[in-house]
């Protein structure tokens, strides 16, 4: 069974399973009617997936992390100004109210500038105009200071896919990620940006299927 995790809408900050708070992911597996699953996550969902695999390996047959490095790998890379400066917006998004005001005006342009293909820009802009959607998305960032989770190393078969043109998550964090996997691990670097599910779906599907074919998965 394949289970994607992350991406929930939370009206209140304290409801967010942030930086991989495993509650949401843990519920996703039995909610799919299984005890164990092949887990896939991108962006915030990637953070949830890393923590789910670290905290509940009994529920995770394999992990496919897309774009998002292991949280500790990212933390280590933040010592480099070249990585830290690319995540400047995470602090901005934690402010109350102001980010909503800015994003309502600038969301379409920012998504387009991030490398997201035009059809998806229109789709996501439309979705973020739904009542409560934009606030819920920003609450993932606002919950970061409240998180007590420290994601440990992962002991399940893992594939990490990363786009070499990702404007926010750079090579140092990507390369460090393998240090936090104590199991069969594969790093796949793609000539792409951040939005791999939208631009490289076949590569992701192939990676998931390869892991699912591992004996015992």
Question: What report would you give on this structure?
Answer:
- This protein has 217 residues and is α/β, with parallel strands linked by helices.
- It is 45% helix and 13% strand.
- It has helices at 22-31, 44-55, 71-77, 81-84, 88-92, 98-113, 118-128, 133-142, 171-176, 196-199, 201-212, and strands at 2-4, 37-42, 60-66, 158-163, 185-190.
- The protein has a five-stranded parallel β-sheet with strand order 1-2-3-4-5, with helices on both faces.
- The chain is globular.
- Mean pLDDT is 88; it is low at 18-23.
Strand-residue proportion: 5-15%
**Approximate helicity band:** 40-55%
Question: Helix tally?
Answer: 11
- Structural category is alpha/beta
3D shape: globular
Uncertain spans, ≥5 residues at pLDDT below 50? 18-23
Spatial extent as radius of gyration:
17 Å
Distance between the termini: 10 Å
Overall mean pLDDT score? 88
Name the features:
about 220 residues; single chain; about 15% strand; 11 helices; about 45% helix; alpha/beta
Give me the secondary-structure topology.
Elements: E1 2-4, H1 22-31, E2 37-42, H2 44-55, E3 60-66, H3 71-77, H4 81-84, H5 88-92, H6 98-113, H7 118-128, H8 133-142, E4 158-163, H9 171-176, E5 185-190, H10 196-199, H11 201-212
Parallel strand pairs: 1-2, 2-3, 3-4, 4-5
